[in-house]
Specification:
Layout (H helix, E strand, L loop, with lengths): L1 H16 L41 E10 L2 E4 L2 E4 L5 E3 L16 E2 L4 H7 L2 E8 L2 E8 L1
């Protein structure tokens, strides 16, 4: 009886430890937090540049939300902005209150308050956990 129990436990552990995503692929190795990509949960952008579970996200479309100081969420993906992040507004004014320059392109000045003040939908492109482009949609 004891041998049967040990064999059963070993079989269950083997199945649990080698479980895959059902697509016949091996499980991805975990990476350090600094190198990790945003979560893969989310609605892929209309261009179809969303990612499968084993790839980094290219872009995500959804409602922008403020998470914490300097951190935001689009759909269910958390991200940061940087000095390199490019913002395009769909209409109206830039986050800092000025008129958009150069085909709706705005600076990121006032972005945090802009997100908090009214709801905005956008396509956000990523490089790791940093947004490289935020394009507001209507």
């Amino acid at each position: 009886m004891q041998k049967i129990m040990i064999t059963a436990v070993a079989a269950v552990l083997t199945l649990v430890l080698t479980a895959c995503n059902g697509a016949g692929e091996s499980a991805a190795e975990p990476s350090s937090p600094a190198d990790s990509a945003p979560a893969t949960v989310g609605t892929p952008a209309p261009e179809g540049s969303g990612a499968s579970a084993d790839k980094r996200i290219g872009s995500v479309w959804g409602r922008l939300h403020h998470l914490t100081m300097g951190r935001f969420i689009v759909d269910d993906v958390a991200f940061y902005t940087s000095n390199e992040t490019v913002l395009y507004v769909a209409g109206g004014k830039c986050p800092n209150g000025s008129a958009p320059i150069n085909v709706s392109k705005c600076s990121m000045a006032g972005f945090e308050e802009w997100i908090k003040s009214t709801p905005h939908n956008a396509i956000v492109r990523f490089h790791g956990q940093v947004a490289t482009l935020i394009r507001e949609t209507q």
